[in-house]
Amino acid sequence: MLELKNANVYYGSAQALYDFSLAARVGEVVALIGRNGAGKSTAMKAMAGWLKCRGGALMMNGARIEHPTPEDVNRAGISLVPEDRQIFPTLTVAENLRMARVTHQPARWREREVYELFPRLGERQEASGAALSGGEQQMLAIGRALLCQPKVLLLDEPTEGLAPVVVNALVDAIRAIAAEGVAIVLVEQNVRIPEMLAQRFYVLDSGRVGWEGNRDEFIRQRDAVERLISI
Ligand code: ATP
What we know:
It is built from ten helices and ten strands. The chain is globular, with a radius of gyration of 17 Å. The chain is an alpha/beta fold. Strand 7, helix 7 and strand 8 (183-188) form a beta-alpha-beta unit. A six-stranded mixed β-sheet has the order 6-7-8-3-9-10, with helices on both faces. A four-stranded antiparallel β-sheet has the order 2-1-4-5, with helices on one face. Adenosine-5'-triphosphate (ATP) binds next to strand 2 and helix 1.
C-alpha cells in the first residue's frame, strides 16, 4: 500500500537519510527502530510529505504521489502522529476531535468510535488539551489522526515516557486499528513495543537501513538488531 523508495533527505547540506526504502501493507504493523538521531523521525516526515526528498518516490497503492505536500499525502490516506503530538492545548478533547472531523461518507472513524477505542478520552471530553496526561494526549493525537480516515497511520514514538498501564492501552488500540486494515508504521527506539506488535522490522543506523526482516528473522537475529540500536 505505502511505499517510499530510495529517498535521500537533507537538512541544509547535512544528509540525514540515505537511499531509504520502506513498505507497509494493508493491516500490517511495521516497526522502524533505531537509536537516538538515527533518522526515524526524518523518515516519518518524508513519508508524510513534511520533508522533501531528493530523488526517490512516494507511492500509495502503486500510484506515485508527485511532489508530495502534507495535504496531498493526507488526502492519499496517510496520517502522521508526530512525536510532539501537536494537539491544541487551549481546546478541550471534544473540540480537538471536532476540529479534525472530516466529511468523508461513510466514515469508519467518527468521534464515537474514537471514544470507544479510548474510553479514557470519553471521560475527559471537557478537559483542555493542556490538562491531559502524556498518555491522554497521545490517545487524542491518534484519535485526531483516525478522524482523517487513514489507510496508513505513522506513529512516532507513541509510548515514549508513558506508564506501563497506558502503554498497554495504546498497544491494544494499535492492534485494533491494524485489525481494521490500516497499515501502521511504528517508530520506537527499542524493540520492547515493536516486538509485541510488528510483523516486519526496519532498523535505521546513521540514516541507513542497517537491517530489515520479518518477525521470524527478527526473533532469530535479535542480537544483531540489539547491537545496531544499542548506544
Ligand atoms: P530521536 O529518537 O532522537 O527522535 P531520530 O532517529 O528520530 O531520533 P531524527 O530526528 O530523524 O532522528 O534525526 C536524524 C538526524 O538529523 C540527526 O543527526 C539530527 O541531528 C538531524 N536533524 C533532525 N532534525 C533536524 C533539523 N531540523 N535540522 C538539522 N538537523 C536535523
